[in-house]
Amino acid sequence: AYFETFPGVWRHGDSITVTDRGTVVIHGRSDSTLNRQGIRLGSAEIYAAVESLPDVQDSLVVGIEQPDGGYWMPMFVVPTEDCGVVGLPDRIKACIRTQTSPRHVPDEIILAPALPRTRTGKKLEVPVKRLLLGGDPDKVLSVGAVDDLEALRWIIEFAQGRRG
To answer: Which residues of 93-107 are buried (b: 16+ CB within 10 A; e: fewer)?
Structure first.
């Protein structure tokens, strides 16, 4: 996947700007940027809000362009063990709306038992997005780079069930 954009050249998707002072500003993944109605949203702002809630252990948000021109922005959330999940999606949406903006609020909150990450701890935004779009798991990511195979299986099964 890293060689698809420019054959023979590694492209990992992180955007940077080199300033006049010679410093570097890291903007984050260009291929996982949320873009709702032409407005780019940073997932980090959403994560900061939702993961400030004591009932949330982990989260992952992606943006999916729909064939009809619509946009679906689901958020997967792992509740803490002692969390009362009743009303949790509404609490999450209210928190995001208050700490960021209404445009940052996901379309759907999906409670998950766990979320896979890379072995270095990065959220798998791009692979999860590609899985939700129908990508072949063997081509979307390297299983050896994932820290929790059961969490990955859950995401794959969710994506396959979503598509029917």
So the answer is: bebbeeebeeebbbe
Pairing of β 108-111 and β 74-79: parallel
Q: What is the dihedral of CA 129, 54, 80, 98, to 10 degrees?
A: -30
pLDDT of 124 over the 80 cut: yes
In the DSSP assignment, the letter for residue 132 is H
Which residue do the tokens 């252990």 mark?
Answer: 57
Contact at 8 Å (CB) between 75 and 59?
Answer: yes
| Inter-CA distances, 87 with 32, 47, 92, 110, 150, Å | 28, 19, 9, 12, 26
pLDDT tens digits, 19-35:
899 887 765 555 567 87
Q: How far apart are CA 128 and CA 120, in angstroms?
A: 17
Q: Where are the alpha helices (DSSP H) in 38-163?
A: 43-50, 88-99, 125-132, 137-140, 149-163
